[in-house]
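Need a sequence for this fold. Nothing fancy.
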């Protein structure tokens, strides 16, 4: 009886100890791990399910077969000398997207910024064609001046702008003044207009410039228009002067 009882006790103890023995096998722990096997150790899954990292029972990071996503959190490098290295020997693109609130994520991704392997940077585009390509508006300085009449401007500079050359493309240059059907106002009409409006015809007033700014391309066209009109007035006056000189010489010879 005693021998049989001891045998049953040993068997029961063995059965109860098996789960604990299995649980006691080497696992990853928070104090570091020593790898002593030829097999490559890893943390992850062996099937198609993603690897999910949680804090406070809330999913923070999801790693699946094609992407790494961080949910409801920030991606932070908390180091003075933190660096991000991307690409390989042949380069590679680093792209940032904003996910849509609704819709198919694969087709409705909104590009935020792209760093191309060739050094080009795109903001709002995935195909930058210059060293810096901004697909949208840009503001330089603490204040934006792209409101009101300037709401459709691409670049706003709150401060001084230094450059060597500025080229402005336009179609309606002022050579139309020399066309035969151009209506040249008489000098008396211009005199009356100036007395009433305090500026030349076709030229923006000081009030308009103060409110809407100075369109350099349009101003250049207007100034050239006035110069060409003045040229026509001078040509006409030169004809009149020659006619008077001819009449004067005729009177002298009588």
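Here you go.
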């Amino acid at each position: 009886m005693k021998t049989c009882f001891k045998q049953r006790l040993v068997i029961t103890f063995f059965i109860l100890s098996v789960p604990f023995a299995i649980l006691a096998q080497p696992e990853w722990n928070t104090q570091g791990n020593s790898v002593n096997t030829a097999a490559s150790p890893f943390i992850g899954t062996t099937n198609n399910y993603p690897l999910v990292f949680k804090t406070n029972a809330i999913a923070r990071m999801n790693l699946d077969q094609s992407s790494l996503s961080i949910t409801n959190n920030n991606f932070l490098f908390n180091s003075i000398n933190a660096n991000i290295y991307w690409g390989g020997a042949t380069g590679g693109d680093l792209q940032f997207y904003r996910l849509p609130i609704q819709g198919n994520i694969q087709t409705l991704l909104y590009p935020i910024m792209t760093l191309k392997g060739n050094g080009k940077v795109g903001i709002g585009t995935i195909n930058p064609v210059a060293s810096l390509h901004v697909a949208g508006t840009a503001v330089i300085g603490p204040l934006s001046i792209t409101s009101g009449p300037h709401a459709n401007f691409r670049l706003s500079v709150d401060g001084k702008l230094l450059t060597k050359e500025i080229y402005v493309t336009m179609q309606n240059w002022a050579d139309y003044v020399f066309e035969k059907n151009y209506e040249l106002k008489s000098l008396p009409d211009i005199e009356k207009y100036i007395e009433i409006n305090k500026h030349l015809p076709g030229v923006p007033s000081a009030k308009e410039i103060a409110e809407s700014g100075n369109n350099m391309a349009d101003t250049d066209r207007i100034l050239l228009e006035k110069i060409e009109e003045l040229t026509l007035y001078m040509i006409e006056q030169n004809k009149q002067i020659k006619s008077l000189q001819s009449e004067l010489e005729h009177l002298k010879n009588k």
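For context: The beta strands are 51-55, 58-63, 68-70, 94-98, 110-115, 121-123, 132-134, 138-140, 155-157.
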